[in-house]
Design a protein that fits this description.
single chain; alpha/beta; TIM Barrel; 8-stranded parallel beta barrel; 12 helices; 8 strands
Length: 280
């Protein structure tokens, strides 16, 4: 019997096969909804998990164990490859090695590592040196055991400009990163420059509604040269908006004004029953 393909190998093959849109999820239910919509991989953002599990902004307070547990829940429920936001590695090299081991052991197919400072340093630039983050990438690649897909993200655009961010990304690729994520290009021209100057690498683009990066269509982004399109908080923002509206109505006289925008309890039961059947 041939050995079973690992989550990392599945993700690697899917990225190589063509454009991939990856929605952000934060729990088992949002993962199931994403799977039902036809997505083939999922992203666990630190901001979403921190908001839903801790009720806090993404301030670096989320630990790798909380992300590990979220990976387990999301991966078990969906059966899809899960990319986990590993922030800056949760500390030094030993912390990063442990995080890689535990996230991969929990079923993560990939991780994202950012070149921000850890912990945040008031009054200093929010990013670390190129050499420091390149070492993080090398440590993560050395620590993986099951083909974990390592994405190197640089947040240098707002600090050093897009040119320096591209230079950083090249160094991270040389350190072993499987894909490159240049955060916050602020125009279509900057997106095109990133894609052109980093051509030949797997490129990730981050689309946040009303964010810094232009909200281009999937076709436009693929045409520019981006192979992985991550939409990390669309589901979270949509859910928070819907719950806010429903609870504001509930706090009044009744939910009659929003009832047509709610699933029926029967529809919810049928949705979960279909997953129960698939899981058997």
């Amino acid at each position: 019997m041939e050995p079973k393909e690992t989550p990392g190998e599945r993700l690697r093959a899917r990225v190589a096969a063509g454009a991939l849109v990856v929605p952000g999820v934060y729990d088992a239910l949002s993962a199931l909804i994403a799977k039902r919509a036809g997505f083939e991989a999922l992203f666990l953002s630190g901001a979403s998990v921190s908001a839903t599990q801790l009720g806090l902004r993404d301030l670096g307070l989320l630990g790798h164990t909380e992300m590990r547990d979220a990976v387990t829940r999301v991966g078990t429920a969906s059966g899809l490859p899960v990319i986990a936001d590993a922030d800056t590695g949760y500390g030094g090299p030993l912390n990063l090695r442990r995080a890689v081991s535990e996230l991969e052991g929990a079923g993560a197919a990939g991780i994202l590592l950012e070149d921000k400072a850890w912990p945040p340093r008031p009054g200093q630039e929010p990013i670390v040196s190129v050499a420091e983050h390149a070492e993080r990438i090398r440590v993560a690649c050395q620590a993986r055991r099951r083909g974990l897909f390592v994405i190197a993200r640089t947040d240098a655009c707002p600090v050093e400009g897009v040119g320096k961010a591209i230079e950083r990304a090249r160094v991270y690729a040389q350190a072993g990163a499987d894909a490159l994520w240049v955060e916050a290009p602020s125009s279509r021209d900057e997106l095109a420059r990133v894609a052109d100057e980093l051509a030949g690498h797997a490129l990730v683009v981050n689309i946040v509604e009303r964010g810094v990066t232009p909200h281009l269509t999937r076709s436009e982004l693929v045409e520019l040269g981006f192979g992985v399109i991550v939409s990390p908080v669309t589901g979270l923002l949509a859910a928070a908006h819907a719950i806010t509206e429903a609870f504001e109505e509930l706090a009044g006289e009744s939910t009659a004004a929003v009832v047509d925008r709610l699933l029926t309890f029967t529809q919810m039961e049928e949705f979960m029953a279909s997953h129960d059947a698939e899981a058997r």
